[in-house]
Specification:
By secondary structure, the protein is α+β, with helices and mostly antiparallel strands. Helices cover 43% and strands 16% of the residues. The strands form 2 sheets. The protein has a 6-stranded antiparallel beta sheet.
């Protein structure tokens, strides 16, 4: 459930971004199709169009709406979800060894994605890229910090220094690139596929359902055994050089895991009170090399497609992948999610 809470702000950021940005028709620079032009006429085409200069109405409307949503979610989480568990004084909890650090990669990716959506939304108000980037980072860090504070007062959990560091790393990746290149050349991405637990005995299937949920929606967000986190980039573009490789085609380095049936180890208590120990199932780190698509580099004049491409550019596309894992296995996946 906590993984779902972490992604809640991201989902809302996506919906807000897509709602506003889809109506933001900006002309393309004929000399450089990757550059969006702002002209003075766009300012008279309605509230939702891009502003060539700072627009107070958009800025305060967006900020006020975001604060209202944030306050509502925080109150709802505190009075519904967290109130169901015992409370304590604020404390920290070191969970850095849990889940083979998959949750930490999730924190970095979520913060990066939220900051990126927030940055684009504030650019829509007419702010400069750097100012928009800082506000996007503030947006993301506030959302994630709130969950850590609520965790800190929960007797069951505790604020995690590792989570805070992971959140900061995601935000720092976005800010560093805006200052270095004024664009995102390294993209943090996410993919998730359904894990088939039918090959295991019923006790494992029951454990997976209890930990990760039984539906596809729950599994996508919560099943660390099916998730992967990726860093996608085009080597020549990072170095500022030209390449024969298409602008939209990138390399992607990934990290995933499998065999995780508990935070620190594969040991748990079932519904009958029996202690189940399954050390025969190895907890395995997985490393990937794959291809990916940078949707921001696909040229199109279609407003809806431009918005859709920008919105989904936090997701890794299925592609052929080479895997090496901590067991020493080398595998090739014709199509890996």
């Amino acid at each position: 459930m906590k993984a779902g809470l972490r992604y809640l702000g991201l989902i809302l950021s996506f919906l807000l971004f897509f709602t506003l940005e889809a109506q933001n028709e900006r002309p393309i620079n004929e000399q450089d199709p990757g550059t969006i032009l702002l002209d003075s006429s766009s300012n008279k085409n309605g509230f939702w169009r891009a502003s060539p200069q700072f627009n107070k109405a958009k800025f305060y409307g967006l900020t006020g709406g975001a604060l209202g949503i944030y306050s509502g979610i925080t109150i709802a989480l505190s009075t519904t979800w967290y109130s169901e568990f015992d409370q304590s004084s604020f404390h920290f909890y070191n969970d850095n060894g849990e889940w083979l650090q998959m949750d930490k990669f999730g924190h970095s990716w979520t913060t990066y994605a939220e900051a990126r959506y927030g940055m684009h939304l504030y650019e829509w108000t007419g702010l400069s890229q750097r100012k928009a980037a800082w506000l996007g980072v503030a947006w993301a860090m506030t959302a994630q910090l709130t969950i850590e504070v609520l965790d800190g007062f929960s007797a069951k959990w505790g604020a995690s220094p590792g989570d805070l560091l992971a959140n900061t790393s995601g935000a720092a990746l976005l800010l560093a690139q805006e200052y270095a290149w004024q664009e995102q050349r390294f993209l943090l991405k996410f993919s998730s596929g359904r894990v088939d637990y039918s090959m295991y005995d019923p006790s494992i299937q029951e454990r997976a359902n209890n930990l990760f949920g039984a539906t596809n929606r729950e599994r996508i967000l919560k099943d660390y055994n099916g998730q992967s986190y990726w860093l996608s980039f085009k080597p020549a573009r990072v170095l500022g050089r030209t390449s024969r490789m298409p602008n939209w085609l990138t390399l992607s380095l990934g990290y995933g895991a499998e065999g995780i049936l508990g935070g620190f180890e594969n040991e748990w208590e079932n519904a009958e009170g029996e202690i189940i120990v399954r050390n025969d199932i190895p907890r395995t780190r997985r490393y990937f090399l794959s291809l990916d698509i940078d949707f921001s580099q696909i040229e199109t004049r279609n407003v809806f497609l431009r918005t859709l491409f920008d919105a989904v550019n936090i997701l890794k596309v299925p592609a052929p992948s080479l895997e090496i894992n901590s067991r020493g296995d080398l595998k090739f996946h014709p199509l890996y999610w």
